[in-house]
Design a protein that fits this description.
The complex is a heterodimer of chains A (about 260) and B (about 220). By secondary structure, chain A is mostly helical. Chain A has helices spanning about 10-25, 35-60, 65-85, 90-115, 125-155, 155-165, 170-175, 175-195, 205-210, 215-250. Chain B has a single domain, classed as P-loop containing nucleotide triphosphate hydrolases (Rossmann fold, 3-Layer(aba) Sandwich), CATH 3.40.50. The two termini of chain B are about 20 Å apart. Classes of the chains: A mainly alpha (about 260), B alpha/beta (about 220). Chain B: This is ATP-binding cassette domain-containing protein.
Chain lengths: ~260, ~220
Amino acid sequence: MKTIVLSPLDLLVASGFILLAGGLSVAMRLGVEKRLLVAAARTVIQLTLLGFLLEGIFKLANPFLVLLLLFFMTFMAGREAAARTRKRYLTMMWDTTLAMGVSAFLVGAVVTQVVVGVKPWYDPQYVIPLLGMILGNALNGVSLALDAFLDYVTTRREELELFLAYGAEAREALASPFRAAVRRGLIPIINAMSVAGVVSLPGMMTGQILAGAPPLQAVAYQILVMFMLAGAYALGAVGVVWLCGRKILGRDLRLKLEILR
Amino acid sequence: MPPKNPLLQVGPLTAQREGRYLFRKVSFLLYPGDFIHLKGPSGSGKTTLLRQIVGLEPSQAQRFLEGQPYPPARLSLFRSRCLYLAAEAPVLEGDILKNLRFPFEFKANRKKSLKNPEALLKELGLTLPLSTPARSLSTGERQRLALARALLFEPQVILADEPFSALDPKSFRKAFSLLYDFAQKGQRAVVCVSHHDLPQKTKTLILQDGTLKEAP
């Protein structure tokens, strides 16, 4: 395999693009230059830290450390998903974290243990990037589905209360918002799968090819990843609206919009 | 005449708004054949009271219908017998038929069925075909559709919140007499919140200053 190693100087040159984007923002008075710089700085700091952390964890190859990192990633993903919706309730972060955790660990377990057959089971070189990819995507599905769900129940409150007044149970009253929300949550992955290889060269595949892997092997991995992500999107979206549905319309069959802020 | 057993018994009902009691420990009783005109100044809590009875607002109330208790686990069944007709007269996307038929798809109502909707709609002056999109109806037509839905659903109690507010005098007379007649058939009763003067009623209750009183 041939790879060209990137030096810090190369990255310095690349940061010129950030300055270009920032300059455009100033010139066109977009007002995003500060956020752009902060985001760029976060990318550098977070990824550098992660690089060191991964080097350390790869060297130690300790199952507990791997699991600890996976839990930490799940928690951060749950927090991020909860921050992205327009409406919130107090314990929402737990629901997003739980939905994400269940979906990512389930899909991740099948992929790493059954499909790829990672040995030992916690081999960080496979487990961490795969789960990271699942979480990053499930995060999208979870926050979109939750946002659509909360939007539905607030804007169509009269309709839901009409169902309840006519004796609907929670499942019956929430059927339409569930459907709308899960559908919304699945759109990104459906779009991604539809254009994969035609419009976009998926990121992971690009990375593998750049790193010198044979294209067909990269394609096989990419297909696996797409299917895995579709599963994670679906489980995450269904999970989070189910958890949220229990909060918003509990056993007392009353729409509790007052918990939303 | 021996006293009749109450049809509906709900209480205690208490509601607060901004730290002030709207009403406190009210118990609500209905007898078969009752047609009650519920009055009270705007903001006195009439809607909240009706919504608490059916559990759309939080309350600690116990519910009895024909002497049978309806604990929270049987709330859907209670609502299928004691119907709250919302003032907003909400309609679903889809045609008139869908708007009349959806309640019968719920588990709590599987023993009921939709009977002869055209005749009732005609009596209410809604002669549009059942395939008309309900969202295209005017406010007054929506209100009559919502009333038709409630009557066709055949609950035992209808708690109607401003069911006539958008009706012209002619539609009002028809709608009112249908609702009034409904209360007279068997084990049934109606509560009607209205700022109109109602031509007939068996009792008038006034919700004011936190209590529910019978008008003299």
